[in-house]
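Hey, I'm writing a tutorial for new members on how sequence and structure tokens pair up, and I'd like a real worked example in the thread rather than a made-up one. If someone can provide the structure for the chain below, I'll link this post from the tutorial.
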Amino acid sequence: MEITMVDCLNNVMVRQFMCATQLAAINFKVKNLSKEVDFILMILSHPMLQKYPLKTLYITRFLKAIIVQMENNGNELCDDLYLKYVELIQNESNEGPFYKHYILDNNISNELTESVITIQESTSIVSQGTTGLCTWQAGIALSCWCLKNQDILKDKFIIELGCGTGLSGISACLNCSPSEYWFTDCHSAVLNTLKHNIQINETHHKFNCKYDIIQLSWNDIEDLKMFEKKKPDLVLAADVIFDDTMFEPLCSTLKYFTINITTEIILFCTLRNSETYTKFLATLKKYDLHFAQSVLPDNYSIVLQQNCPIYIIRVKQNAVMSKYNIL
């Protein structure tokens, strides 16, 4: 039976592979592993992954995990799989750039380029003095949330704080039809990578809104004056509370946006350190920012690794909260 691209992209392992999910989170003990091998080899040979490659070391480790599982099952190794593995380990390179490919939606096209969001990412957590050059789990969660809550984003003027590689914002611009979306970050290297990622995805997708890329520092109140005349309807941010030295500037910025009582603020925060998270909530209270918390449900998306709880925090200056369910 012929394998179609739709079959391939609907496969869980393929989706996890394309966004370089940690191997420990992938189930290699599937019933028909040979079918998975066909899917993976099909993806690896696609021109898109040739042009925008995954990190070679990740691919070799992934293929090795499949080979080990097939040997444990007593399956005959596929020649194409073994040859691809040998080819990669002989030509393994750590020179980038490297990319990840996210399939967030279930509306799969028969063309790979039309079904994915391609993101250039750093292979290091900290690169060029910033953590914004790789996509964090709360950012993936926010991207998935945008797809599940398109009605909340539709026709809204949206600002994203600490936009990083741009996955969340690109997802919103492609799928949710806001009136306008502003990507903001303080680091020039992050914004340069973001521009590159937007350019890649604009080649294959139609953005359904106007957008802008803004350099914005939470420490500089002058930067916020650009919003005096144009108030956002929605402020989004993901994984922006890992550095407690930035809590005061961040909360000051959030406080500024709450001056407009119709502005909604939604933060996605991964709970890696309970003390850091508690300190952030205390800083919100210090700035008289009222908030409501909820925890993202388990298994929210097959491309999301939920090793730690991901909290959704909705912030308002007053205690009046809108009634919609933000999950």
